[in-house]
Amino acid sequence: MSAYGTYDRMARYSDFSEMESTPEIASALDIYAEETCSQDTEGRVLHIHSDNSKVKEILETLFYDTLDVNFNLVMWTRNLCKYGDFFLFNDVSPEYGVINAYPIPITEMEREEGKDPTNPNYIQYFWRGASNEGVTFENWQMAHFRITGNDRYVPYGTSVLEPARRIWRQLTLSEDAM
Predict the structure, then answer these.
(1) Contacts for 90 with CB less than 8 Å, ≥ 6 apart
(2) CA-based torsion, 47, 101, 72, 65: positive or negative
(3) Burial 160-171, CB ≥16 within 10 A → b, else e
(4) HSE value, Cβ hemisphere, 13 Å, CA-based, for 11
(5) DSSP of 115-178, one letter per residue?
(6) Taking the CB of residue 103, how many other CB atoms lie within 10 A of it?
(7) What is the pTM of this model?
């Protein structure tokens, strides 16, 4: 990724964070998240279907007990809608599998593709934390959720706020000028 691409990505994230302070935009993000993750009559936001009862049991334990999707999914979805990206670090135990998942700030994560010429599908994630030293994670250690459809920001996602970004900037500039 070019230096401009990184700057542009961080500038977009900064704009989306500022846009959220507008009450109408904050409400729109709330509606997106709550409608996407609304519970059914059984109180479930996610349904798991499998012919294998053991697989179904393991996945239900993972999503409902370990990851607590009924509580966490709304917040995760809201951030995904706001930024177009969302990163979860998977805390994996060799004995028990995924034992927890921790959200990682999107401004500190980079998706690295094409690092292995023998495997074009190889993906790693680089976390440049507060110490600015950095840690590299394998694909299985990180869950990267992204809203695709707009190739302009590949390999990252596109925020649902992107179409309103220019108009929001014009509005802010005109308010400041007044």
Answers:
(1) 98, 101, 140, 141, 142, 143
(2) positive
(3) bbbebeeebeee
(4) 10
(5) --TT-TT-EEEEE--TTS--EEEEGGGEEEEE--S-GGGTTS---TTHHHHHHHHHHHHHHHH-
(6) 14
(7) 0.87
In the structure encoding, which two tokens stand for residue 144, read together? 């990267």
Distance between CA 11 and CA 7 in Å, rounded?
Answer: 6
The answer to whether residues 148 and 159 touch, using CB atoms and an 8 Å cutoff, is no
Q: 100: helix, coil or strand?
A: strand
Here the contacts of 143-146 (C-beta below 8 Å, separation 24 or greater) are: 143/87, 143/88, 143/90, 143/101, 144/85, 144/86, 144/87, 144/109, 144/111, 145/76, 145/80, 145/85, 145/86, 145/87, 145/88, 146/80, 146/84, 146/85, 146/86
Q: pLDDT tens for residues 133-169?
A: 889 999 999 999 999 988 888 899 999 999 999 999 9
Model pLDDT for residues 46-91, shown as the tens digit of each residue: 999 999 999 999 999 999 999 999 999 999 999 999 999 999 999 9
Instruction: Give the H or E element holding residue 79.
Output: helix 69-83
Q: CA 27 → CA 23, 48, 173, distances in Å?
A: 6, 30, 22
Q: Give the model confidence (pLDDT) of 101-110 as tens digits.
A: 999 999 999 9
Q: Report which residue type is found at 49.
A: H
